Amino acid sequence: MPPTRSLLPIFLIAACWAQQPPALHEDRLVMLTAEFDEGPAQNGAGVIFGSAAGRIYIATANHVIRSGPNTAKSVKAFVKGRPGESFAVKILEHSDPILDLAVAAITDPDALGQKPAARILGDSATLKRGDKVWSTGYPQSRRWYSRPAPDHIQRSAADSIRFDSPFISAGYSGGGLFDERGHLVGIIKQDAPPEGVAIPIERVLERLREWGYPIEIERAAVEQSAAQPRTLVVRLLRVIVKEDGSSGATNWDFRATVNGNVLLDWREKSFDDDAGRNVYVPNQAETKLIEAPAGQPVRLVITGDHSHGERLPISKDTTLAPGAEVEVPVSTARSRKGDFIFVFSVVPK
């Protein structure tokens, strides 16, 4: 029998191999350096999502190119296929400080050369606690840096993906968060350990479409594993009333659909924002259970209206991620006229 120590190198090789990350779809990631009138330049990243009229459009974290009221005086981009070169970036007007999303553009239409792949997207709605994810960014002046060891999902919701990351650092913001197949599932907006936060890619694209930008990236084809749940069940658990729109109780009309199927249709439903009465729990007759295919986005549309002296329409169109409790805020443009949180469960059947 050979000595047992001869097995050690094989074991170590196998262990190292197991830690190798998947091939990340990062050809559409650019590295950014933003310079401000005051303070040091800051590094970050962005995702090329489309092009038109001689511009190459980039989505990034808003704070990479804006610092409070100050906008960077100059931004340059480094492109994967053009090592050693940098390209001027124009900061565009559209931004969402709450979501921490902004749009910029490379003004040289030939900066990319050959167009990178389009089918790069994963599905953030399938992420669950403990799933492995990898991030790529520009930390410590290291472009397209990604650690070989994975981080792990802590919580995935409609507007944010939280993941445990003790080693994340400044420079990852605006970069990509990738799933176990190497597909892009989010854009990183918080890079302070022990936790990272990303904007789900579906929410990013939803906002970009609202702003009227061309979208060239799409979901990669993925075969569904037999081990994956085949159906998700969506249920409304409660409504938290932060502001009902007037003094005392107020009647509202609410309608909610899931993937086009009606979940609830409430007419003249009374809501009260007074403490102790500001949580409404529907009974079984007021809502339905909606089944949705796992592995695909669960699209939720909520519309509401009340006529207490004036029409106050509100609406919310978002994508639900699986979770025992998923909070969806819905409010009027002036939140004091109507401000609610709908709490759903989205769980495997």
**Number of DSSP helices?**
3
User: Which geometry do the CA atoms define?
Assistant: globular
Computed Rg: 23 Å
Question: How many strands appear in the DSSP assignment?
Answer: 25
* Biggest pleated sheet: 6 strands, antiparallel, barrel
Determine the structural class based on helices, strands and strand pairing. mainly beta
Widest beta sheet: strand line-up = 1-2-3-8-7-6
CATH homologous superfamily assignment of the largest domain: C2 domain
Ends: how far apart?
52 Å
User: If you consult CATH, what is the topology of the largest domain?
Assistant: Immunoglobulin-like
Question: How would you sum up this structure, described in words?
Answer:
The protein has 349 residues and is mainly beta. It folds into three domains: 29-106, Beta Barrel (Thrombin, subunit H); 119-219, Beta Barrel (Thrombin, subunit H), CATH 2.40.10; 231-348, C2 domain (Immunoglobulin-like). The protein is built from three helices and 25 strands. It has helices spanning 8-18, 62-65, 201-210; strands at 29-35, 42-52, 55-60, 66-67, 70-71, 74-79, 87-96, 101-106, 119-121, 132-136, 151-156, 161-164, 176-178, 184-192, 195-200, 218-219, 231-243, 250-258, 261-271, 279-280, 290-293, 298-305, 314-320, 323-331, 339-348. The chain has a six-stranded antiparallel barrel. The chain has a six-stranded antiparallel beta barrel with strand order 10-11-12-15-14-13. Strands 17, 20, 21, 24 and 25 form a five-stranded antiparallel beta sheet that branches. The longest helix has 11 residues, at 8-18.
